[in-house]
Amino acid sequence: MKYRSVFDIIGPVMIGPSSSHTAGAARIGLVARQLFRAEPAWVSFHLYGSFAKTYQGHGTDVALTGGVLGFDTSDPRITDALNIADTKGMNVSFHEEEAQPDHPNTVKIRLGNGVQELELVGISIGGGKVEITELNGFPLRLSGNHPAILVVHNDRYGAIASVSSHLAKYEVNIGRMEVSRKDVGKEALMVIEMDQNIGEDILKEIEALEHVETVTKINE
Amino acid sequence: MFRNVEELVAIAEKEGIQISEVMIRQEMKIHDRSREEVIAQMERNLDVMEKAVHRGIHEEVKSLSGLTGGDGKKLYEYIQSNDTLAGPLMLDAVAKAMATNEVNAAMGTICATPTAGSAGVAPGVLFALKDKLNPTREQMVRFLFTSGAFGFVVANNASISGAAGGCQAEVGSATGMAAAAAVEMAGGTPQQSAEAMAIALKNMLGLVCDPVAGLVEVPCVKRNAAGASGAIVSADLALAGIKSRIPCDEVIDAMYRIGQSMPSALRETAEGGLAATPTGRKYQEKIFGKSAKV
After folding, report:
1. What phi and psi, each to the nearest 5 degrees, are found at residue B35?
2. Three-class SS of residue A176?
3. pLDDT (tens digit, 0 to 9) for every residue of chain B, 294 residues total?
4. What domains does chain A contain, in order, with CATH numbers?
5. How far is B74 from chain A (nearest CA, A)?
6. Inter-chain contact A5–B27, Cβ cutoff 8 Å?
7. Surface of B (72-131) touching A: CB under 8 A
8. What residues of chain B lie within 8 A of the CB of A8, using their CB?
9. Is pTM beyond 0.95 here?
10. Computed from CA positions of residues A58, B41, B165, A31, in that sequence, does the dihedral angle turn out positive or negative?
11. How far away is chain A from the Cα of B159, in angstroms, using its nearest Cα?
């Protein structure tokens, strides 16, 4: 079931005008920001389907930018996000794409600074709820509604077990987990949605495990 | 976890509890939260709704485009000083629904119910019934849990997205949700809530999402007006003992299939329907300039 909480239906509290095109867009932008773990110097938004057709009218542009700036759906600063980004010297661009996406509200976000870049694809499925469907070329499903960690690791036996048993040691329950890889024995990604947040110390311990490259936390 | 309306009603009947209580208990169980936490969060949503209603009927709200604003207030003032055709309660719900959506269009703070474009229907009905039924604060919170329970079924089995299923998925769903919750608040049974939901949603089937200039304004604000009035009528039908010949779950399924067969032009792309009328196009150009696509 896609929707698991009554507050997916009665909620979110948000700045108008559209739950899918404003609140959902802000949430996708916020996930990108949390994954990037820094304020980007530039960000480009590639809009598909209904997003491409109506993004100005729905404030999708300000919402996406507000999310990347770290604003939540109910943060009134969203309405002024483009100016705030401008003041900070952040280069923001929008691109209307012609390709037909699987879901009508799809956005691809690319962001970076001199050091690193990140690319993710998100969809806004209605009522403010979003899913992240692709991260740096990895297909995935991330609702953004639960605390989650993304673990980049090497595709070796025992890597998944060592991460999950480490979480078990701290009595962290895994709600959903997804594993994907670019090829056998190559770079791989674990997406783990949990019922509670975990601290930086646990993250560092996981990052130190054999075959694990990086661990990124996404809060609720 | 209940998967459809039939299961939702069955749980309520078996346990001898209200639909709202089924929803509260499920939320506590699945998300491992206390009753106090769950109730408190919904009460905060109720506060947001109340503020939006209040603002919309008392302030001269205007959207950035200038297309909408002030009509909720206008209607509210008309009710106070006129012998209306529809009667005060019905129009009070309509005025408060419109007011909420005008606040939304003005990028004000609202609570999506189930979406922002349809955020006026449930609060409109709720705050109109408040004056007639004198509910406690807890009963008003319960209205939202009952609405949420029915919306939960629609979201999981069909859609609450205009881009995916048209306006029937947004205002249609909201109308059904509000109708079902109104029945509970008025003392009806869980099954009567289901009948009200079915009747309300049936009357919204096929409704397309065709926002002028892609803005959540025209016709959204007035569709919320229609939704609020439809919800109250459907609730009264159900309370009178009238049943929907097509069971609620099948109506929801029909809504889903209609949405799937709707052309993309009528699913929140601003390419068809009212958005594509000469006047709709004119507004589009005026607001975004001739260069604007769509």
Report:
1. -55, -40
2. strand
3. 899 999 999 999 999 999 999 999 999 998 889 999 999 999 999 999 999 999 999 999 999 889 999 999 999 999 998 899 999 999 999 999 999 999 999 999 999 999 999 999 999 999 999 999 999 999 999 999 999 999 999 999 999 999 899 999 999 999 999 999 999 999 999 999 999 999 999 999 999 999 999 899 999 999 999 999 999 999 999 999 999 999 999 999 999 999 999 999 999 888 999 999 999 999 999 988 754 444
4. 6-142 (3.30.1330.90), 148-218 (3.30.70.260)
5. 21
6. yes
7. 103-117, 119, 122
8. 152, 155
9. no
10. positive
11. 8
